[in-house]
Amino acid sequence: MARNLDYLNLHFNPFEPAASGVPLVDRLWVPERWKSSLQRFLDGMQRTQGAKAFAILGEYGSGKTYLLHWLEREELSKRRIRAFFFDNPGVQFYDLANALMRQLGREEFAKALWEFLDPRLADFQPALFRNSFQEWLRTVKKYRRKEDAIRELSRKIHEKEIADDEEIRYKLARLIVETYERPYFQYKDFVAGQRGALVPEKEEAPYFAAILRALRLTGGAESVAFLIDEFEEVSLQKRLTKRQTYEYMATMKRLINLTEREQFWIFVAMTPQAAEITEKLEPALWERFISHGEHRFQIPPLNKEEAKQLVIHRLDAARLEQGASQRLEQSAPRNPLFPFPEDLVESLREDIYSSPRRLVKVCSLAIARAASEEVSVPFTAKYLEEVQETLYPRPAEKDSPS
Ligand SMILES: Nc1ncnc2c1ncn2[C@@H]1O[C@H](COP(=O)(O)OP(=O)(O)OP(=O)(O)O)[C@@H](O)[C@H]1O
Ligand SMILES: [Mg+2]
User: Fold this and answer.
1) How far does the centroid of ligand 1 lie from the alpha carbon of residue 399, in Å?
2) Are residues 26 and 318 in contact, defined by beta-carbon separation less than 8 angstroms?
């Protein structure tokens, strides 16, 4: 069992050993330099037309995933933008749509749409079907009113401005009415050429646009955003066949087009190398995506002050309740970095403190060790050096005598 962390004035280790993604805390902090570029983009975009796409670039462990989650939790909800997170989707547009539907669940989607559309069928006794979605579906089936129900839903879909096109309205309506028979949403239902396919070829984008509108309106949101992480996985050319490259570019194009026409935003995170590859594949498309460099942010290495703030914010989330920390403070003047020394950052190598992943890992191990063996606090420079070298041994000097 882990030792009590009271003597560190912590009730858990706020640095996760894997140092990937977001920690379990209720508020996420990010440096001002990261924030301002994204906030400028969001401020400007809510007023203008044009592609609402943004690329976040960063090296391994620089905080790309963390930044996307910060956007989702802190910034987009404040602006009433409904966000969906995608982790390494495939290259095809279909993959993205499929991931979206898996995330939502067909029943959840259909039910929300049904509630929003509030369909009324003539000579149906309200009590028969007004109770629940499930009951409505059962009643429609029992009295063989499927076509009536589809017609009414389709009319409402038009009235509520989700879709104009008759064909698309019909598909959406059918999707709702058939929820009971097929409870799970599968995008393969939408792919052309299959038996029972709902959407004709080349119509995925308008159909997808209708789904986006439905998501926005049912959620009472101003717009919808996709946060796509690990886009590099799909753009690493060496792994893509010619066909996949073509599909990747077609997906990008469709996404950009959608952001221009709909209340729809996309944020992608990738390594700078992946961005370069994408740019080489189709320079004009990439330029359009990042609006000639304006909608692009490369996460810079942390400076000393940012590294210090990162550690302070992490520690704050794990502090013991007021009383205990005050008792501790009486014996020692307040050091917000405690149990780390005030000159923590100065004690670490630059390649460690400037990388969020390395910094978090070093802090994590320092605290984990202090939980299992008695360590003097605040931690000494020697102790920190040991931890740092254990995790990230200093590379041997190239010209050192062998
Ligand atoms: N602003 C921040 N405040 C606190 N912790 C952060 C911050 N930014 C990143 N981290 C932490 O740093 C670690 C690495 O971040 P993250 O996983 O987001 O990097 P990444 O760029 O997505 O890495 P990869 O290239 O492997 O996907 C995670 O533990 C994350 O919680
Ligand atoms: Mg990541």
Assistant:
1) 34
2) no
Instruction: Show the tokens assigned to 353.
Output: 């403190």
Torsion of CA 176, 265, 86, 64, to 10 degrees: -160
Ligand 1: residues whose CB is within 6 Å?
Answer: 16, 19-23, 29-30, 58, 60-66, 310, 314, 356-357, 360
Say which residues have a Cβ less than 8 Å from residue 230's Cβ, sequence separation at least 6: 65, 87, 88, 269, 270
- Atom 31 of ligand 1, residue of closest alpha carbon: 22
Q: Residue 296 phi/psi, 5° resolution?
A: -150, 140
In the block, tokens 């984008």 appear at 205
Which pTM does this prediction carry?
0.89
> May I ask the CATH architecture of the domain 32-93+223-298?
3-Layer(aba) Sandwich (3.40)
pLDDT digits (tens, 9 = 90+) for 200-220: 555 668 888 999 999 999 999
Within 10 angstroms of residue 37's Cβ, the number of other Cβ atoms is 17
DSSP symbols for 56-76: EE--TTSSHHHHHHHIIIIII
* CA atoms of 219 and 278, how far apart (whole Å): 33
Residue 341 · residue 379 · CB < 8 Å: yes
Nearest CA to ligand 1 atom 25: 60
Cβ(316)–Cβ(350) under 8 Å?
A: no
Q: Which own/partner pairs from 280-283 qualify as long-range (CB within 8 Å, at least 24 positions apart)?
A: 281/235, 281/237, 281/245, 281/248, 281/249, 282/249, 282/252
Domain boundaries, the chain: 6-22+302-391, 32-93+223-298, 106-184
- Each residue's pLDDT tens digit, 233-249: 655 555 677 787 887 88
